[in-house]
Amino acid sequence: MDLTLFALFLLACGGAGATGALFPPGDWYRTLAKPGWTPPDWVFPVAWTTIYLCISFAGARVAVLPDNGFAMAFWALQAAFSTLWTPVFFGLRRLKGSLLVMAVLWPAVAGATWFHLQADLLAGLAFLPYLAWVTVAAALNASIWRLNPGVAPLRPDQA
Fold first, then answer.
1. pLDDT on residue 137
2. I want to staple 61 with a disulfide (CB 3.0 to 4.6 A). Which of 47, 88, 123, 145 is the partner?
3. Distance from CA of residue 62 to its chain's centroid?
């Protein structure tokens, strides 16, 4: 594995993760009704750190392989929609809108997992924690939307 490529993929993940600092959950999120199976707050940074390390490893392994176009395209697609989800959910408080983002994010992660598996077994396996996490996140997003029907979204100038 090329360490420079790993660092570049990790930098891309850091850019996506920076939206968490720009749009933190804050008091608003704490006041929302959530299902009893919601992970505790400390799990989120641990999960994302693990995911970012794993998918950076996967990207670096597959980037140098021939016929990696679909794997890299899905890697980029998941990164884009992962980056978009946080400002939509936390920044604009659009619970339903964030489900629409999730409707693209989940298949993007599944596609990245599939195509990385086709290119390199270890790279594909490295995507499995992300696929599991985004599955939980989608269910949590849907549950929060269902449990909080009166949440008013913010206008972009209020975020």
1. 97
2. 123
3. 20
Q: 85, 98 in Cβ contact below 8 A? A: yes
Q: What is the dihedral of CA 60, 65, 70, 75, to 10 degrees?
A: 0
* DSSP-assigned letter for residue 90: I
Alpha helices of 23-120 — where are they, by DSSP H? 26-31, 43-63, 69-86, 95-119
Domain membership flag for residue 152: no
* 33-89: pLDDT as tens digits: 999 999 998 999 999 999 999 999 999 999 999 999 999 999 999 999 999 999 999
pTM attached to this predicted model: 0.92
Q: Is residue 98 part of a domain?
A: yes
Answer whether 118's CB lies under 8 Å from 61's CB.
Answer: no
Q: How many domains does the chain have?
A: 1
With respect to residue 158, please indicate whether it lies within any of the assigned structural domains: no
CATH number assigned to the domain comprising residue 79: 1.20.1260.100
The parent domain of residue 57 ranges over: 3-147
Give a yes or no: residue 26 inside a domain. yes
The predicted pLDDT at position 26 comes to 85
Rounded-to-integer distance, Cα 150 and Cα 31, Å? 12
**What is the distance between the alpha carbons of residues 105 and 86, in angstroms, rounded to a whole number?**
12
